[in-house]
Amino acid sequence: MIYSLIALLAAPAAPQTVQCAPGTQHPVLVKVTGLKNRQGQLRVRLFGGSTATYFDKKRTVVRLEIPTPRTGPVMICVAAPRPGVYAVDVRHDTNGNGDTDRADGGGISGNPNVGLMDVIFKRKPDPAITQFRVGGGATTVPVQVKYLQGGSFKPARTID
């Protein structure tokens, strides 16, 4: 028993794409669209609790990082810890360096319009737009990734 637990803890966590692992209790399927290329990494963060803590990296409920899938639709399974109300964000780290660079893209559940001034002044989007409810079954959440172009964030000419 203890050896099984050690082996489980030592095994790298491999996020599931397209399908959730069998037995996932409260799966959130994040459908990522708008990628400008298939390089780098994707980071998905799930937020719950008070809406004031949404998109605060210190209040992340679940965080996954995966290599950007080279082909096909991008569906990332995130297991919510329990039923409830959540928000999600996605970052496309195009060069895979772990830092947010000007070439990177991002998106938020509900696909709100976010301007450069919102980012500069750390204004968060309206929770009424970004929230979604997780129940007993799978919840699909579309997120369109946008990239900085000029002084605003816009969808890239997509490859998907």
From TrEMBL:
Keywords: Signal. Residues 1-20 form the signal peptide. Pfam families: DUF2141 (PF09912). InterPro entries: DUF2141. This is DUF2141 domain-containing protein. It comes from Sphingomonas qilianensis.
